[in-house]
Amino acid sequence: HQYFASWLTQVVRLYKRIPAIELEFTVGPIPIRDGLGKEIISRFNTDLSSDSTWYTDANGRDMQKRKLNYRPTWKYNNTAPVAGNYYPVNSRIYIRDESKK
Predict the structure, then answer these.
(1) Could you tell me the maximum CA-CA distance found in the chain, to the nearest angstrom?
(2) How far, in Å, CA of 54 to CA of 23, rounded?
(3) Do 2 and 10 touch, CB atoms closer than 8 A?
(4) Which of 6, 42, 5 has its CA nearest to residue 24?
(5) DSSP 57
(6) Which of 8, 17, 37, 66 is paired with 83 by a 20 to 30 Å CA distance?
(7) DSSP β-ladder status, 2-5 and 8-14
(8) pTM score > 0.90 for this model?
(9) Which is it for strands 63-67 and 53-57: parallel, antiparallel or unpaired?
C-alpha cells in the first residue's frame, strides 16, 4: 500500500505467472479549501522501447492506440506538450516492447 495523503492512496499488485501489474487507486474527496484546482494523474517511467506508443481503453470498451504528440485525424500543433498527451483511463492501459515478447 502507498499512502500519499488522507484522500489519496494506491495499492500495487503483482501476480505469479501473469505479465501485468494491477493498480488500485482511492481518490477523494479532493480538498478544495485552498481554492486551488487539482488534477490527479499517474506517471510511469520504464526502460521498455514502445516507440512512444501506448494503448488506452475507450470508456472501458475498445482499446485506442495513442502516440506521443500525434493525432491520426489532424495535424497536431504541440502547444501543451504535457497536457496534450494526457488521456483518461477507465479500466486499462498498456505498452508493448516488441523486442521483449
Answers:
(1) 49
(2) 17
(3) yes
(4) 42
(5) E
(6) 8
(7) antiparallel
(8) no
(9) antiparallel
